[in-house]
Amino acid sequence: MIIDKRERALDIHELDYFSPEIFEKEITKIFHGSWYAIGFASDLPNHNDFFLEHVGHKEVLVQNVNGEIRAFTNVCPHRFSAIHTEPRGNRALVCPYHLWSFNAEGVARFPGTADAGCPPSSGGSPRLEAWRVATAGNVIYVCLNPSAPSLEDYLGPSRQWIEEISLGCGYEFKSFQSEIQANWKVIINNTLEFYHAYSVHPQTFRPLINAPLQKIKALPSIPPNIHYAMPLKEGDATMARLDKLFGRLLKQPAGIEMDAYEHLYSFPNLTIGHVNARSFSFFQYEPVSPERTKLKVRVWMPSAVAENSSSIKVICEDFEVKLRPFIFDIAEEDRVTCEAVQRGLKSKPKQWASRFIEDEALVVRFQKDYVRLMNS
Ligand code: FES
Ligand SMILES: [Fe+2]
């Protein structure tokens, strides 16, 4: 069944997958205006550990400063050198050009001020551009918008879910990066429906799903975040045993859907998914330009897997061998598909709109939320 006509109009008038002007507006309104999932606290265990990430055109440094996570735009207020030049490392907040240093609030101190006297020529204390920082478990979020709600209010019930999963996931067994030649919204659209699983993932995801497709169950979330689960086929005996085991290894498995593919879209740039809690995949999307998006994928198992008895380890190691190519292959299949959509959109007659079927209702929800935020 096709969803009603009012939904279809969105695609013609308000969604844009190419324009540099719209991309700039998205950066201001969405990527700098909302809470953006920038990385993981477990990557910054020690004082002065840092990493760099792009949020829109801004390079952001995220650093452990005396146990507190801080985020600043990676540019010196003196004459605009980058503060850090390596993508990650351990280094004080010091600009390499003239050695201005910065405290935890990003306020500058000048070498030689006390003895040689060389204060800045204009008034006020120069400081780094500071981002708001908050965490949900192991996930670090940043936001440049002072009037955005707190992360707690922004994520609502999803915050506890992210906390539970990300803190239970101490054992990382796969990570990879790729680049998709498609607009970030094409990719998000694709993550919010299962209709394509039959055709795009015939060897990977399709064996896990029931035919006909089960109804997606929407889970509580605050727009524009989206949380859903879809029941899967019952696995074989080994998998069922593994599922029970992994369920037990989480602190509070009650909050996790155990017989399903569960997916949380933390708007605008992070999705977290799992199949029966066997492993947890974190997909971060970094929009580079209207037609290019970087993808960073990290996959964890509950940390208790690594700490458990050797027989459990053997089962898990066997599982890992199968799971590694599975996740990579799915991401590749989706990349090819999204690039084909991006190409197709270029040739689309102006009057055409997407024809959504019921199973794509969450795509419509995302698009409506997007339009609402862009017009706010
Ligand atoms: S540019 Fe940073 S100290 Fe001069
Ligand atoms: Fe897919």
General description of the model:
The protein is α+β, with helices and mostly antiparallel strands. The longest helix has 37 residues, at 310-346. It has helices spanning 5-13, 20-31, 151-155, 158-168, 184-191, 197-200, 237-249, 303-307, 310-346, 361-374; strands at residues 36-40, 49-55, 58-65, 68-73, 88-90, 101-102, 108-109, 132-136, 139-143, 171-180, 217-219, 226-231, 260-266, 270-275, 280-289, 292-301. The strands form four sheets. A seven-stranded antiparallel beta sheet has the order 10-16-15-14-13-12-11, sandwiched between helices. The protein contains ten helices and 16 strands. It has two domains: 36-147, Rieske [2Fe-2S] iron-sulphur domain (Rieske Iron-sulfur Protein); 158-374, Alpha-Beta Complex (Naphthalene 1,2-dioxygenase Alpha Subunit, Chain A, domain 1). The chain is 31% helix and 25% strand. Helix 5 (184-191) packs antiparallel against helix 10. The protein starts with a helix and ends with a helix. The site of FE2/S2 (inorganic) cluster has 8 residues, from loops.
